[in-house]
Amino acid sequence: MACTVKVIPNPYIFEVALDKYTAHLTLKQKGVKVSDFILINNRNLYLAKPILDKWGYALLKPRKGSFGKGVTLIDDFSRLRDIIEFMEQERGINLNEGILLEKYYENNPQDWLSTTLINGEVMYGYRKKSSRFSNFSNSFESRSFQKVYDSDEIGGEVDLGNLKQQHQQLASLAYHAMSYEVIGFDMIWHEDHPIIVDENTFPGLYPNLFKLRNLSLVNSMYQLIVQALI
């Protein structure tokens, strides 16, 4: 149907945006600041060693994962090798399409921010509450590394965030690069600028945050549909 009738959201772009690798690649090719990344598998694993040595730390991410599940901090090549080879030995795990390895950037979890956009307009920025933060292993040089993690996959527990101009500009650039009507972007703050670390095809649509921003989710979706019909 989407070949002859306009469907919202666009199902073809949905497939691109749902996969963290193809989403990252789309943004990077269009000049949007996104985490550096590589795609690896069990056949070219050795190519990751010099890159990982340069990065220092990396994040192994399920390409179509969510809620922080499976996101693993990698501190050296041997840890990465053992994980990939374990997966290779397990039946039913297909490594042929590649596994996403993303550069870890020094950042403060207190500066993490997510954005929600509808039809190109930034609705708001928001932060997960500390109850949604989870530590990685404590064995990494006595340093603390965290991720957002939701074991029950229920979402929620958010506060309105401090949306800086740089966040809005980056979110707008990413929206137009992806061309997906309803989308969200997770950002960290590294040095003096934000970096996109995740794209959300099911962004946070929180009624309480719409109310705090004096916006209407219903009206925003209605305007999106009306514009599509023009």
From TrEMBL:
Pfam name, any one: RimK
Keyword Disulfide bond applies: no
GO cellular component, one term: cytoplasm
Keyword Electron transport: no
Keywords on record: ATP-binding, Nucleotide-binding
InterPro entries with a match to the protein in the record: ATP-grasp, ATP-grasp_RimK-type
Protein name: ATP-grasp domain-containing protein
